[in-house]
Amino acid sequence: MPSNSRRQTVIGHAILAVAALVALYPFLSVLLLAFGEPGTRTSGFSIPTSISFDNFTEAWRRGLFSDALTSSLIVAAAVVIGTIVLAVLASYALAFFPFPLKGPMLGLLLIGLVMPYEATVIPLYYQLKDWGLVNTYWALILPQIGLSLPFAVFWMRTFFVSTPPALREAAAVDGASRLRTLRSVLLPMATPAIGTLATLLFLFAWNEFLLALVLVPDNRSVQTAPLALSFFAGNRRNSDPGVTAAAAVLVALPVLISYIALQRRMISGMLAGAVKE
Amino acid sequence: MSGLRAWSARQYWPAFFYLLPAAVFYTLFVLRPLGQTAWVSLFTWDGITEGRWVGADNYSALLDDGRIPSAIAHSLVFVVFYAVFPVALGLFLAALMSRIRVRGLSFFRAVLFLPQILATVVVAVSWRWIYDIDGPLNAGLRAVGLGSLARAWLGDYDTALPAVGIVGTWVMYGLCMVLFLAGVQKIPTELYESARLDGCGPIREFFTVTLPALRGEIAIALVLTITYALRNFDLVWNTTAGGPGTSTTVPSVFVYQGAFLTHEVGSAAAISVCLTAVVLVVTGVIMRLVRGKEG
């Protein structure tokens, strides 16, 4: 019996190690390619002998990636801030205040949580075009705040419900208003939950592709990083794979850095968010 | 009128003050577009001139459209690659490691989760390189003397669909493994001991202890992977854009092409309505099945 379970331990960990290698390999091979000499096509099985940044300077020069990274940062930051402010207010009411039609409201939010973006993107385009906002930052910020709300509201509501009622009662006894209770009692406690939520919303907004493709297709100065990468990689003139790989690394880098710093929080957040669905 | 008086007496208005900003955004950018998609799907519209009411004609036209059955077939193939394979891989690992304390779990978790946080465009660019005619896959084949198999995997009619499918398996298997390993570590060891006392072999043990205990995790994994497989616009658009020919088309590609490239907005909206309905129904059914068994 013990030898059997020992064998299982070894095989199990071996499978995990292979799985981890496979998960790393595609991005590693892109890294190798990007740091190779321009024009060379590192197969990915050999260790490179020299490191070159030429692919990066070339991608940076041709792809307007400084604009794209700035755009992504502006859009993601605005979406995170806007969504969190609206979601905190709404989920506070949904968690604690009695009012009619609460059930149907949560049901409507649930639809938005599950629904694919394809369901809204066509009218969104014509609506924003009417307002003259297509090809501006607003075309990405405003809809993404709306579309992020279900996730953020359910997230914050779950947190608020889990806080001890005694705290709110004590605040009420002290004569604190609803807004005061939220600001001085609940929000300080909510900092970790809001932090994780902000990280996830930032990740989703940074990686969003379909909305950017549809809503800012013709203005290069507001294109987000994934959209710029998609156009860059799809352009036949940029057929040097090393330069395309460098562009992909540039787009992934901010997310990778935050992942290395915050991975525990991001993973448990994504799993917990999924569980709540 | 008495309802209105009760309304003001009970002071519901503060709740609505807090809800209003979110409600405005949600209505303007989610609920209203959702309704408009359904409304537009009842018109023939090129996006510019006045639309013409056609009722359900866009939907019946979909039934006659030869492109649709193959797009649905591709979606089902993707469900196998994106959902069935990753869940099976994850369950296999969970079964193997059900009574083993996993060493270095947080490291494996971080690495296995990496495909989930990379932008789909980055994933697509990485895999386009792997499948490239000069890329690592073909280099590896040539190195082991199978150079005759080398090809542009995403540009070949026979291999493009499974090639995109494998990218989906790669994106999703780590998530399933992490979910199921975390779940399996929470199962009390007494359950396994009593199963063993009852004379259960490893296979019966899996079906009587591990699988039922992981029901919640399996449901989550299925919802996430199946909905991703059914939408699947980002990955398909950035690897093959539906090609070569129509060998990797999926409904969401027709939504984008119809609405923004070929100006058949009504028909694109009809596809989008069907896609949304399928996603909502699949999610509902999976969640209902899990809850039903629990209750």
From TrEMBL, chain A:
Q: Do you know which InterPro entries this protein is assigned to?
A: MetI-like, MetI-like_sf
Gene Ontology terms describing biological process:
transmembrane transport
Q: Which residues form the ABC transmembrane type-1 domain?
A: 69-262
Q: Do you know which Gene3D superfamilies this protein is assigned to?
A: MetI-like (1.10.3720.10)
Superkingdom of origin organism: Bacteria
Give a yes or no for keyword Transmembrane helix in this entry: yes
Listed Pfam families: BPD_transp_1 (PF00528)
* CC annotations in GO: plasma membrane
> Topologically, how does it sit relative to the membrane?
Multi-pass membrane protein
Compartmental location:
Cell membrane
Any stretches that span the bilayer, and where are they? 12-35, 73-94, 106-125, 137-156, 185-206, 242-262
| Entry keyword set | Cell membrane, Membrane, Transmembrane, Transmembrane helix, Transport
Q: In which family does this protein belong, per the annotation?
A: Belongs to the binding-protein-dependent transport system permease family.
Protein's name in the database: Sugar ABC transporter permease
Species for this entry: Embleya hyalina
Q: What is the lineage of its organism?
A: Bacteria, Bacillati, Actinomycetota, Actinomycetes, Kitasatosporales
UniProtKB/TrEMBL annotation, chain B:
| Biological source species | Embleya hyalina
**Cross-referenced CDD domains, in alphabetical order?**
TM_PBP2
Provide the protein's localization. Answer: Cell membrane
What name does the UniProt record give this protein?
Sugar ABC transporter permease
What family does this belong to? Answer: Belongs to the binding-protein-dependent transport system permease family.
Please name the taxonomic classification of the source: Bacteria, Bacillati, Actinomycetota, Actinomycetes, Kitasatosporales
Membrane topology, as annotated, equals: Multi-pass membrane protein
InterPro entries per UniProt: ABC_transporter_permease (IPR051393), MetI-like (IPR000515), MetI-like_sf (IPR035906)
Alphabetical keyword list: Cell membrane, Membrane, Transmembrane, Transmembrane helix, Transport
| BP GO annotations | transmembrane transport
Q: Which residues cross the membrane?
A: 12-31, 72-95, 107-130, 160-184, 205-230, 268-290
